[in-house]
Each structure stands twice: as structure tokens, then as C-alpha cells.
């Protein structure tokens, strides 16, 4: 647990709790000014974007979706970051995956020592949202490269890569939409409406950034959906063409079986004593093959 002081005459405290270094229990946050329900929410590792306020303790709990900086799997995911806001204190709860955000928060605080608790909190939300944009640009570049590869060759490896990007875009889209809803709810909260105009302006900036991110993730998700559908159609068309080719080959080869079977019967047949009869039979094969292929090509091209 770390503590930093800021504001005029260092009147405010910023408390940082790292749950992978300090076990997060009720005793960790033992404080007469924090309700047990707030502590329970903060201890829930599976909790997603939420706003909860305890009027008696004047404690505002906000769980915000942040980007998982470490891409351990084949796609990006999000993680929750917890804030507990009080009039003279901001508590930030992170883990190994979200610890990288503390450096950005600390850099902002070093440059704005006289900020209020609310403005610092709203700025933290903006900083979290801004971490998404470089990843969105990287995903966009990956999408373009993958699209070019798929145009050249639609194989399993490239399709799996497209599926991974599509899965990651879904995670980011859901997280971005939840953040927008959270900020809109926060903006209309009666506690926030009593904040200074400068603090509310910072919240508006955070909401604008979150909406921009939500629009980008929605656009990316739509593009991935269209790409996935297009290449599925390409694969289906390739399958149909392969089946058509195999059908044509099987029909042509069936002619060979019919003719050889006819001349293989143990009865008197035409050209049995004709020299070089096999030449005429082969010629008949070729002529029939050609005629059948022309007819089948005409039928396939017509449809």
C-alpha cells in the first residue's frame, strides 16, 4: 500500500493498493469511513463497470474497464480498475495487469499538484481511456495486413488470425460501451452535480474520450463482421467449385467405365477382329469426353 499527498497544503491523499502484493481483505481497507458494502464491491475481482455511492460515508465506488496491457492470449482483453472517492481521499486498487496505469496517474499528479480529488479522479478515467487508442491503431494495421494476406490466400492460419482480432474487438467494444454508460450515470449523479464546474468539465472530457473509443470499437467490430462474412462466402464458393469440378471428373470417368465394360463382355461385339480397334475406342473416349465436358461447362456457367 502506498500513499501520496496532493492538493493545496497536501490536504488530499492518494492511496494505492496492489492486490497481487497485498491481499485485499476487509482488514486491508479497514476504515471507519468506508462502508462494508463498498469494501465487498472492491474485493470482487469479477466485478465490471459499476457506480455505487454510500451517502453516510460519502464514499463513491467506481469500477472502470481498463485495457489489459499484457497480450497474453491471441487477442486483447480488459480488466477492472477500482476507485473509491471521498472528499479528502482517492483510493486506487490495481493488480499486476493494471499496475502500468499507476505510472500514468503519477505523471499527471506530478504535473498538477494542486488538483482536487474529483478532478484527479476524472483525469485518471481519461488516462485509462487514452491507453486504448494506440491498441486500436495497432488492431487497425493488423486488420489491413491480414486482409491483404487473405486476398492473396484464404487459408486456415489467416482465418484463425482474423477470428482472434474479431474476438478481441468484441471485448474492447463491450468494455468501451460499459464505460460510456458508467460515465453518463456518473455525470447525472447528484454528488457529481455538486462538484465545481472545472471538475465537471474534466468529467465531460472523459466522457467525450470514452464515446470516441466506443465509436471506434463499434466500427472495427462491424468491419470484422463484414470481413468474416465475406471470407466465409469465399470459402463456401470455393467448396462449391471444388464439388462441381469433382462431379464433372466423376461423370467423365464414368464414360470410360461404361465403354470398357461394354467391350469387356464375353459375347460377339463389333470390331472384335478389326486391327487397331483400340485406337477407335480411345478416339471414341476422347470425343465423348469432349462433348460431355462442353455440355457440363455450359450448364455450370449458365447457373
Structural account:
Keywords: Membrane, Transmembrane, Transmembrane helix. This is Magnesium transporter. The chain is of the alpha+beta class and 303 residues long. The protein folds into 2 domains: 2-236, Beta Polymerase, domain 2, CATH 3.30.460.20; 242-301. It has helices spanning 36-43, 100-111, 117-130, 132-152, 156-187, 190-193, 197-263, 277-302; strands spanning 2-6, 12-18, 50-54, 59-67, 78-86, 89-94. It has a 6-stranded mixed sheet, with helices on both faces. A hairpin with a 4-residue loop joins strand 3 (50-54) and strand 4. The longest helix is centred in the last third of the chain and has 67 residues, at 197-263. The radius of gyration is 34 Å and the shape is rod-shaped. The termini are far apart.
How can the largest sheet be summarized?
6 strands, mixed
**Shape-level CATH architecture of the largest domain:** 2-Layer Sandwich
Query: Which strand order spans the largest sheet, edge to edge or round the barrel?
Result: 1-2-6-5-4-3
Q: What is the 3D form?
A: rod-shaped
Low-confidence stretches: none
Q: What's the pLDDT, averaged over the residues?
A: 81
- The SSE string, one letter per element, is EEHEEEEHHHHHHH
Number of strands: 6
Note the total helix count.
Answer: 8
Structural class designation: alpha+beta
The total tally of domains equals: 2
CATH topological fold name of the largest domain:
Beta Polymerase, domain 2
Q: Given this structure, which CATH class of the largest domain is correct?
A: Alpha Beta
Helix share bin: 55-70%
How far apart lie the N and C ends? 72 Å
Give the full name of the CATH homologous superfamily of the largest domain: CorA soluble domain-like
Radius of gyration: 34 Å
User: How much beta, percentage-wise?
Assistant: 5-15%
